[in-house]
Design a protein that fits this description.
This protein is an alpha/beta fold and 257 residues long. Helices cover 36% and strands 15% of the residues. The protein has one domain: Alpha-Beta Barrel (TIM Barrel). The longest helix has 18 residues, at 118-135. The model is unreliable at 248-257 (pLDDT under 50).
């Protein structure tokens, strides 16, 4: 059986305020090689205009390939409202791929059009996901239903999600070729809730992107006890044919046809 986790496109370097100082660009590349990955992606946060130079810094500093491993540069941008995102199509066109968060509900610039309880917050996150899909230049929606710096957990939100609404968004993503992130960390922390979410994505034919959301080099490639195993991912029905690949299933490739 081949290795399932062969890429990791959700990696933060020291250019993101939340990342460890040890996450230098050189250290990120070295960690990707140590994890025997075929491709990595640097996806530093772009929340405000002053952050827009981050991908260019990474691209200038990094080769496009190291010992057979592809080195890509994208970004993680916020959906700030169902009809507004922190980047535009022109900016996105200069990147290898685009990740968007629809769950940074407490970030500055994000409209808080929800009641502070899980059901209302999930409904708003699903509205933000619809907005991200409709943009036409988003490749991956990251950490769905996980709200950082929040008193509610991923499990709380997964339990509160309306099944029909969730599946409607999943079908919309599948039809548009937008991948949903599958982070093994959530499968480890909340197995039943993560299984429900990831299974809905699979059953609605979504492309999946297995990523670490690494903020330090040691997590790159979903390594460490905090992540569920490849065997646990395969037990859900995830296989190589369902995974996001740059230039193949990405929306960028779909738009060029």
């Amino acid at each position: 059986m081949s290795k399932l986790i062969r890429t990791d496109f959700h990696i933060h370097s020291f250019l993101s305020d939340c990342a460890a100082p040890t996450a230098t660009l050189e250290a990120v590349v070295a960690a990707g090689r140590e994890a025997e990955l075929e491709a990595i992606g640097i996806s530093d946060h772009v929340f405000f205009g002053r952050h827009r130079g981050r991908p260019a810094i990474a691209r200038r500093a990094l080769p496009r390939e190291v010992d057979g491993m592809s080195v890509c540069v994208g970004c993680e941008a916020d959906m700030q409202a169902p009809d507004r995102v922190a980047i535009d199509a022109e900016f996105a066109a200069g990147l290898d791929y685009v990740m968007v968060s629809a769950s940074h509900l407490y970030d500055p610039g994000v409209e808080q059009e929800f009641i502070d309880e899980p059901r209302s917050m999930v409904a708003y996150m699903l509205d933000l996901m619809r907005g991200a899909i409709n943009l036409g230049y988003v490749d991956i929606i990251v950490h769905p239903l996980h709200v950082p710096a929040c008193r509610y957990s991923f499990a709380d939100f997964a339990k509160a999600a309306d099944e029909a609404n969730l599946r409607s968004v999943a079908r919309m993503a599948a039809e548009a070729g937008v991948a949903m992130e599958c982070n093994p960390r959530f499968l480890r922390a909340a197995p039943e809730e993560a299984k429900r979410l990831f299974s809905a994505f699979l059953e609605e034919d979504c492309i999946l992107s297995i990523n670490s959301d690494a903020h330090r080099p040691s997590s790159i490639g979903c390594r460490g006890p905090g992540f569920a195993t490849e065997e646990a991912l395969r037990a859900l029905g995830i296989d190589e044919d369902r995974l996001f690949q740059i230039g193949e299933t990405a929306t960028r490739a779909l738009r060029s046809r």
